[in-house]
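Example record for the data management plan.
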Amino acid sequence: MGLNLTVIFGSVRTERRGVRAVRFLERAFAERGHQVTTIDPIEYRLPLLDKMYKEYPESAAPEPLARLAAVYRGSDAFVIVTGEYNHSMPPALMNLLDHFLEEYFWKPSAIVCYSAGMFGGVRAAVQLRAPLCEMGMPSIPSLFPIPKVQSAFSEDGTPVDGEAVRRRFSRFASELEWYAGAMKTARAAGVPY
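Corresponding structural encoding:
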């Protein structure tokens, strides 16, 4: 079953290395038969949160917010790609996420985390679980951590240790597919309120 997956990337740094992991994810999920839309904060250039999308009068939200809302409403699941900044997630990621709410409801999320060090961003991922759940897109149990992201992928997203990365990714993707499929079926039957 092909899913509509939205990959939300959280870095705006000029020499960001996590974009290599995003390129890998786009290809790897597409190879599994899924439609992938990547949301890059550099492309959308959202201002710091003042009003959420839902707080604008109908048809009065800025165009980038309306475009994002349409993508999010059509998503079956979200893949959140976060670096680790001071043991937490990047401010651009939280700003991107915080503009919306109902568009995320009843859809799972999966966290891909990375860092320049050996921990692979897991400290940021642990903190990210709470807001994702509060926003209505609880994260699946597994993480996809990427230690030493600067040397884990080539510029085009090809993993340096391809076999090991693909094996870990396959388990992670299978878990996301299960949750996304189960929740899609449940949404079709109705939501609690």
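Summary line stored alongside the record: The domain at 4-189 is CATH 3.40.50.360 (Rossmann fold).
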